[in-house]
Amino acid sequence: MLLIKNGKFFLLPERSEDDFKALFARVAAAGVGRPVDQDGCPQGPWTPDLLAAAISEIETNRAGIELRTVQLWFEDNDKGISATNIGWLARVLGCNDPEAASAWQAELSAAQSRLMAKRRARRRKELSEMAEPELASPELAESGRPEPIRAARRFDLAHATEVLFSRGSVLNLPAAVFAGAVALQFVSYFLSIHSVTYLREDGVTKQVGFLWTLNWTVLFVVFLPLFLAVVVDQVVRWKSISRAKLLSALGDNDQSGTWMARVEASSHTYWAVFLTCIGFAGVFQWISVRLLPLLNGVGDYAVDWGSVALVQPDQIGVVEQIAFTGIAYLYMCFCFYLLIAGLILLSNLVDDFVNIRAALVDCQGNDDLREADASGYEIISGIVRCTIAGLLVAICMKLESFYRLTPYPDIWNWMLSDAQSVLLTPVEPVQWDRSPSPTHYTSLLVAFLVSAIYLYGSIRIGTSGKPRIRANLAIVLLIAVYLVAGVIPGFSLILAGGLIVALHGLFDPDFQFRRQLQRDQSYVP
Predict the structure, then answer these.
(1) What's the predicted TM-score (pTM) here?
(2) Which of 101, 147, 408, 441 could form a disulfide with 94 if both were Cys (CB 3.0 to 4.6 A apart)?
(3) SS (H, E, C) 336-365
(4) 3-51 residue pLDDT tens
(5) Could you tell me the residue ranges of all domains in the chain?
(6) Under a CB-based contact definition with an 8 Å cutoff, are residues 9 and 22 in contact?
């Protein structure tokens, strides 16, 4: 039925089985919704330019519509139309009549649903064809039987993470993290936020440049790659050397699949950590701490490299600041996923070792378990190194968060003044109620997780008696350093002592007990 509504050519929607592409092509060619001439005929068919202009002229459509979006409707592709644009298109086809627009909206929505159903069916067919082997095996070809379809392997995050840690060189993963941090440093230099000072309202001049932050220099360049290198070394050594030796002593050489089965059993844990790191530590934190303050022009957090545009808009634009912080936070959340995933892998390694050692005890008794003790010693030594590196990561995060609240021009001046305050005038401790920062909680979470894995490994492996005392004291000292960092006067001196102990522990995790252990028990770990 042909009508003219509001001086425009109108056509009632037909209840057909056409998908959106076919329906749109028909009404666009007919010129439905276009102005009519003196004879009542539409002034030609719709073109992308005309339709985009008509939709943008709708009074309630303040954002308008992009020409490229309309062009995709005219092209022969699988692109459909969004629910919002269905409403605007229905207004045009309905000639701004509410009842007619409602009828067209229902018809367009049904057509869009049919298009999506066809696209899903096509994708399922393509996936089933990809699962079929390209060439049939000679045996099946001779017998005339069709070769069965091999289904594609479902993506498993736990398996993919384990591969990331265990395949290739030990330096691949740490080098990737290191390269990402260096790339961000170069970008900050090009954006001129590598070294930035600003004057606070209280008259204090602060250095908030990207290259002056412990998080984006020392943490991601030194401590996190070191942590990942130790975890990779532990996993590779366990899979390729230690595990094979223990299985050989057990007389069972066919347990190659049990390690991956143990890792994949923690699949839900990996997914939970991944979604938490990406969703909350990454996207949610970036939106609340960076994006919204930059868009609103005011923020509740202390100014740093990611919010320079709020106090010095001539230094960097808001758009550049948003883009750079977005990339930096995406890199950061992936790095922290790798850190926590490394801890999960260490727990999987401990469980696998304890299971195999229990089988050895059942098979051989306690007569000859020197190989198992040696493997346990290597595992707990690696966990000590990982714990030290993880606690150093947490300390860096906490120091950087506290520095922004201090009246000192840079972080190094702050720590030097703190060391001098022990003999001179004490400094005022940081007020916790004036320091809202998500980094406080993130650093506390990192410190808790690495300490928990160390405690878990020490209890389950249980080969440490007296030789573990110094390692335990070193870990306790580093935890104390984390707790007092930035809180009490003279913390920098305690920090210096903790760094010396940490450096020693990274090279000698048993703190010089190895030689004594070799003399007393006469074995080489």
Answers:
(1) 0.67
(2) 101
(3) HHHHHHHHHHHHHHHHHHHHHHHHHHHHHC
(4) 787 788 888 888 778 888 888 888 888 888 888 877 767 778 888 888 8
(5) 2-121, 175-521
(6) no
